[in-house]
Amino acid sequence: MNTTIVFQSLLGGTLIGVAAVLLMLTLGRISGVSGITSGLLSLSIKKDDFWRIAFILGLVSGPLLLGLVGGEIPEIVVDTRLPYLIAGGLLVGFGATLGSGCASGHGVCGIARISPRSLLATGIFVAAAVATVFFTRG
Amino acid sequence: MKTFSAFIAGAIFSIGLTVSGMSNPENVIGFLDIAGDWNPALMLVLLSAVVVTGIGYRLAWKRTQPLFDEDFFVPTSRILDGRLMTGSAIFGIGWGLVGLCPGPALSSVVSGNSSIYVFIIAMIGGMIMQRNLTAFIDGQNKAVSA
Q1: Given A28, A55, A114, which is nearest B66 (Cβ)?
Q2: A40 touches chain B (CB under 8 A)
Q3: Three-class SS of residue B79?
Q4: Structurally, how many domains does chain A consist of?
Q5: Where do the structural domains in chain B lie, given as residue ranges?
Q6: Which of A19, A51, A108 sits opposite B12 (nearest CB)?
Q7: Structural domain harbouring A84
């Protein structure tokens, strides 16, 4: 790990934190991407849908805005085969809604609040992911 | 203003994921692969994000209400139940299989990588399955106790 990567990691992490604080300060909401997304998946249209859609549009267009100011958009490499890709997506969606959060909601916002639920959730999903990588890529 | 603030927060969040390299599954797998060539970058990203969020939340909560809403909507439950643990374990397995989770997947949509689209569609499918299954089980339990 060289100094550039350390700098990019700390800068990126700080920006993630700034975004989470901004959403709390303005709307009083947790920046949990799975919760914000799954909140949209009911058939009825709710007042809350608008900010959820706006947050997701922001997420999607972030790299474009970064490109506009001259930032470098890194290449995305997904080397997972199709069956595992589909299984992974299903498990991530199912698990995050059942466990009330993903890496952003539990991992960032929850640990920052020192929530016992989020600390436990993060410990469990990191352990499960480490074990999965060990058995599938070892 | 609510919608605009949410958009800006989403955009900054996504730029953070992109700048840190965490929208790239290779870097996430590199962190999870402790037996291989371990890449600790994710830990630095999480650490800095948690410190900034922790300090910022406490400053924000000094206000009686958020700028554009009437209340802070913060989960208050402290119950460590089976759903939390099972859900997190299932999420972790999926995360380890691909190296993607909801935030990075959505912030990589513009990469045009078709694997990202497959993952997002499957993820939304998983969320809908969970909702229906939980509603079904709750319905069954209610029927039994009634």
Answers
A1: A28
A2: no
A3: coil
A4: 1
A5: 2-145
A6: A19
A7: 3-137
